[in-house]
Design goal:
Shape: extended
Largest sheet: 2 strands, parallel
Radius of gyration: 20 Å
Strand order of the largest sheet: 1-2
Helix content: 40-55%
Number of domains: 2
Structural class: mainly alpha
Length: about 120
Protein backbone atom coordinates (compact mmCIF):
# COMPACT_ATOMS: atom_id res chain seq x y z
CA UNK A 1 0.00 0.00 0.00
CA UNK A 2 1.33 3.42 -0.92
CA UNK A 3 2.06 5.94 1.87
CA UNK A 4 -0.13 8.34 -0.14
CA UNK A 5 -3.16 6.06 0.28
CA UNK A 6 -4.72 8.41 2.84
CA UNK A 7 -3.08 11.76 2.22
CA UNK A 8 -2.97 14.29 5.04
CA UNK A 9 -4.94 17.43 4.35
CA UNK A 10 -4.23 20.42 6.53
CA UNK A 11 -7.44 21.90 7.98
CA UNK A 12 -8.33 25.47 7.14
CA UNK A 13 -8.37 27.34 10.48
CA UNK A 14 -8.43 31.13 10.26
CA UNK A 15 -8.05 33.73 13.02
CA UNK A 16 -11.80 34.11 13.51
CA UNK A 17 -12.05 30.38 14.26
CA UNK A 18 -9.16 30.56 16.74
CA UNK A 19 -10.78 33.57 18.43
CA UNK A 20 -14.18 31.86 18.66
CA UNK A 21 -12.66 28.72 20.21
CA UNK A 22 -10.65 30.84 22.67
CA UNK A 23 -13.82 32.68 23.73
CA UNK A 24 -15.60 29.40 24.43
CA UNK A 25 -12.65 28.03 26.42
CA UNK A 26 -12.43 31.23 28.48
CA UNK A 27 -16.17 31.18 29.17
CA UNK A 28 -15.95 27.94 31.14
CA UNK A 29 -18.72 26.41 29.02
CA UNK A 30 -17.15 23.51 27.18
CA UNK A 31 -20.33 21.47 26.69
CA UNK A 32 -24.01 22.37 26.45
CA UNK A 33 -23.30 26.07 26.84
CA UNK A 34 -24.62 29.22 25.18
CA UNK A 35 -22.67 28.67 21.95
CA UNK A 36 -24.20 25.21 21.57
CA UNK A 37 -27.68 26.71 21.97
CA UNK A 38 -26.81 29.45 19.42
CA UNK A 39 -25.63 26.79 16.97
CA UNK A 40 -28.80 24.72 17.47
CA UNK A 41 -30.96 27.81 16.96
CA UNK A 42 -29.08 28.69 13.75
CA UNK A 43 -29.51 25.16 12.41
CA UNK A 44 -33.19 25.19 13.34
CA UNK A 45 -33.71 28.48 11.51
CA UNK A 46 -31.84 27.21 8.46
CA UNK A 47 -34.04 24.11 8.32
CA UNK A 48 -37.41 25.77 8.68
CA UNK A 49 -37.72 26.00 12.45
CA UNK A 50 -37.63 22.27 13.07
CA UNK A 51 -36.20 21.24 16.47
CA UNK A 52 -32.45 20.58 16.43
CA UNK A 53 -30.14 19.02 19.01
CA UNK A 54 -26.43 18.51 18.53
CA UNK A 55 -24.44 15.81 20.27
CA UNK A 56 -20.81 15.46 21.25
CA UNK A 57 -20.02 12.50 19.01
CA UNK A 58 -21.24 10.21 16.27
CA UNK A 59 -21.33 7.41 18.86
CA UNK A 60 -23.84 9.37 20.94
CA UNK A 61 -25.86 10.11 17.80
CA UNK A 62 -25.97 6.41 16.87
CA UNK A 63 -27.18 5.47 20.34
CA UNK A 64 -29.84 8.19 20.27
CA UNK A 65 -31.02 7.05 16.83
CA UNK A 66 -31.35 3.47 18.07
CA UNK A 67 -33.30 4.61 21.14
CA UNK A 68 -35.61 6.79 19.03
CA UNK A 69 -36.30 3.74 16.85
CA UNK A 70 -37.14 1.80 20.02
CA UNK A 71 -34.43 -0.76 19.38
CA UNK A 72 -33.44 -2.66 22.51
CA UNK A 73 -33.15 -6.03 24.24
CA UNK A 74 -34.06 -8.95 21.99
CA UNK A 75 -33.39 -7.01 18.79
CA UNK A 76 -30.60 -7.74 16.30
CA UNK A 77 -29.01 -4.87 14.41
CA UNK A 78 -27.09 -5.66 11.23
CA UNK A 79 -23.85 -3.73 10.84
CA UNK A 80 -20.49 -3.93 9.15
CA UNK A 81 -17.35 -5.05 10.97
CA UNK A 82 -15.47 -2.36 9.01
CA UNK A 83 -16.50 0.47 11.29
CA UNK A 84 -15.40 2.23 14.43
CA UNK A 85 -16.06 0.35 17.67
CA UNK A 86 -18.65 3.01 18.56
CA UNK A 87 -21.06 1.47 16.06
CA UNK A 88 -21.24 -1.86 17.89
CA UNK A 89 -21.00 -0.14 21.28
CA UNK A 90 -24.12 1.94 20.54
CA UNK A 91 -26.02 -1.22 19.66
CA UNK A 92 -24.86 -2.90 22.87
CA UNK A 93 -25.67 0.22 24.93
CA UNK A 94 -29.36 -0.10 24.08
CA UNK A 95 -29.36 -3.81 24.90
CA UNK A 96 -29.56 -5.03 21.32
CA UNK A 97 -27.19 -7.49 19.64
CA UNK A 98 -24.86 -6.41 16.83
CA UNK A 99 -24.80 -8.88 13.95
CA UNK A 100 -21.79 -8.37 11.73
CA UNK A 101 -22.30 -8.74 8.00
CA UNK A 102 -19.09 -8.95 5.99
CA UNK A 103 -18.04 -6.41 3.41
CA UNK A 104 -17.88 -6.72 -0.33
CA UNK A 105 -14.15 -6.96 -1.09
CA UNK A 106 -14.50 -4.79 -4.20
CA UNK A 107 -16.32 -1.87 -2.57
CA UNK A 108 -15.53 -2.43 1.12
CA UNK A 109 -19.16 -1.55 1.80
CA UNK A 110 -21.51 -4.00 3.48
CA UNK A 111 -22.24 -6.90 1.12
CA UNK A 112 -25.90 -6.54 0.12
CA UNK A 113 -26.39 -10.23 -0.64
CA UNK A 114 -25.00 -11.20 2.77
CA UNK A 115 -27.06 -8.43 4.36
CA UNK A 116 -30.27 -9.83 2.90
CA UNK A 117 -29.33 -13.35 4.02
CA UNK A 118 -28.68 -12.15 7.59
CA UNK A 119 -32.18 -10.73 8.12
CA UNK A 120 -34.24 -12.69 10.68
CA UNK A 121 -37.41 -12.13 12.71
CA UNK A 122 -35.25 -10.42 15.35
CA UNK A 123 -33.68 -7.95 12.91
CA UNK A 124 -34.67 -4.36 13.47
Amino acid sequence: MSPDFLPFTRPSIDESTIQAVSEVLRSGWITSGPKVREFEAALSKRYGGRPVRVLNSASAALELALRLCRIGPGDDVLTTPLSWVGTANAILAVGATPVFVDADPATRNIDLDRLEAAVTQKTR
